[in-house]
Amino acid sequence: MDQEKRSARSPGNRRRKVHPFRLRVRIVAACHLREVTPREIAAQEDLEAATVQYHFGKLEKEGWIHVSKKKEVQGGVRQYYLADRLKLVTHREFEEMSKEEREATSEGVLLHYLEICRESLREKTLDARSDSHLSHTPMDLDQQGWEDLRDELDRLLERTLEINVEAMMRLRKSKAEGIPTVVHLAAFEVPPNVTAGIRARP
User: Fold this and answer.
1) How many domains does the chain have?
2) Which domain covers residue 61, as residue numbers?
3) Residue 10 has what pLDDT?
4) Boundary (domain end) residue, out of 39, 57, 82
5) What are 36-48's pLDDT values in tens digits?
């Protein structure tokens, strides 16, 4: 019995220490992207399921997330959570669309982005901050490079959402005014002449 107790308390069996703010940010950011279960987050974060379930409950009570569906599993009920969806389409969702749906979605996103740029230029907010970022980088990629870039953009999207959630939580607590910001991430195939012109430069 004593041996079993010592084994249960050994460092190799310890769960990670819970950082409540960080955990809640991860939960809400994930719920912005897809339906999420506490069990999934517990496995990803190497935390006790009961601990993660507690934070899901607190976030639901505070209005950050909501139960999207319930599913009976092994005599119990598994709850799936979502946050109010932002206008996001991941590459996984994009791949499931028809060609016509993809074209319509991309056109809508680009037109909306151009409208934001137009309004920002008109109101002179585009260059109001000296540390703002605006860039585009045409390049030639092989298939591996394309997949690597796609995966990095997926990770950056997740981190962008985390930053947004972190800021939302701090703003709710401080009652301060937020900085209206847009982040536009894009990677798409372009006509060959776009990169050919770059390669031709001395």
Assistant:
1) 2
2) 2-82
3) 45
4) 82
5) 999 999 998 899 9
Whether the pLDDT of residue 3 is over 60: the answer is no
pLDDT: is 85 or 83 the higher one?
Answer: 83
From the list 15, 10, 22, 25, the residue with the least C-alpha distance to 50 is 15
For 137, phi then psi, to 5°, come to -135, 90
Residues 6 or more apart whose CB falls under 8 angstroms from that of 36 comprise 27, 30, 80, 81, 82
Say if residue 53 is in the same domain as residue 153. no
Asked if 59 and 65 count as a contact pair (C-beta separation under 8 A), the reply is yes
Calpha distance 32→161 (Å, rounded): 8
Claim to verify: residue 76 and residue 135 sit in the same structural domain: no
Residue 12 shares a structural domain with residue 110: no
Single out the residue in 33, 63, 82 at which a domain terminates: 82
Query: CA dist 29 to 137, 157, 165, 175, Å?
Result: 28, 10, 7, 21
What pTM, to 2 d.p., does this model score?
0.74
Tokens 């279960």 sit on residue: 37
